[in-house]
Amino acid sequence: xxxxxxxxxxxxxxxxxxxxxxxxxxxxxxxxxxxxxxxxxxxxxxxxxxxxxxxxxxxxxxxxxxxxxxxxxxxxxxxxxxxxxxxxxxxxxxxxxxxxxxxxxxxxxxxxxxxxxxxxxxxxxxxxxxxxxxxxxxxxxxxxxxxxxxxxxxxxxxxxxxxxxxxxxxxxxxxxxxxxxxxxxxxxxxxxxxxxxxxxxxxxxxxxxxxxxxxxxxxxxxxxxxxxxxxxxxxxxxxxxxxxxxxxxxxxxxxxxxxxxxxxxxxxxxxxxxxxxxxxxxxxxxxxx
Length: 289
Ligand SMILES: NC(=O)c1ccc[n+]([C@@H]2O[C@H](COP(=O)([O-])OP(=O)(O)OC[C@H]3O[C@@H](n4cnc5c(N)ncnc54)[C@H](OP(=O)(O)O)[C@@H]3O)[C@@H](O)[C@H]2O)c1
What we know:
Layout: E1 2-5, H1 10-21, E2 26-29, H2 39-53, E3 57-60, H3 74-95, E4 98-104, H4 127-142, E5 146-151, E6 154-155, H5 162-172, E7 175-179, E8 183-184, E9 187-188, H6 189-200, E10 206-209, E11 216-217, H7 218-228, E12 236-240, H8 260-265, H9 273-283
Parallel strand pairs: 1-2, 1-3, 3-4, 4-5, 5-10, 6-9, 7-12
Antiparallel strand pairs: 8-11
Helix pairs in contact: 1-6, 2-3, 3-4, 5-7, 7-9
């Protein structure tokens, strides 16, 4: 049995869908079922599942993900991303389950223009990034059988994301200013979910970076969103600098993640981000924005 936390979230939804497709027994949990920060409740909840079904792995997608808000409420961000993770880790330790911990490009400082390797120096620049790094450390310290998968710029059909925001804005605006000096890789939840299922079945424990192939700026991503959704003629993307679009949390300018760890372990890398974007937009003529 595989348990997926954050099962109602952007990534968790597609992980559940993929497990379903592969007929892999699974249970999804989210905050409506149980709060992962409540040590006693999450322990009882997961122990009961384990007594009935023998939990082999937890794919831990639940997280506090409001990057800017986290600067104003660091305690809550830490509670979910660190204490919540610690609670799940301790249960995994007790029942001998392995864990996939989903992490982020925000654990790096975003300086330079070279892709980060899995063991590059971690220097998070935001409350959210720090909390996710401490979450990683908790996993590494306490478990032998773990996978840490760092991802970036997530988009999918569930919840809010950059693609949906751009599509929505393009309905009413004839130009949108978008940051052009932050470079990274979009990650499509449908593609990532497949890889996460391959990883969880592999016993190839360790740290991975997993995004769609290719790098772009947010402005290039937005331009492609307009092109694929046939909105280019009515909505222009204006490239701007990070300084022209200040945000509470510092975003890494360089979010490039090297995928060499996937190669070494023999996992298939994800399709290009352009291919993923095209599939997302075309598969859903009326994406709920
Ligand atoms: N989104 C990105 O661009 C991005 C980039 C890099 C890494 N990541 C990582 O990828 C993972 C999945 O992200 P996502 O985009 O799918 O996030 P998401 O859509 O925000 O999903 C997270 C889920 O966790 C739930 N949750 C929050 N606090 C909880 C608690 N105390 N107990 C139980 N469940 C709780 C959320 O419920 P509520 O919605 O009710 O709070 C939500 O359903 C996270 O680990 C995130 O850090 C995301």
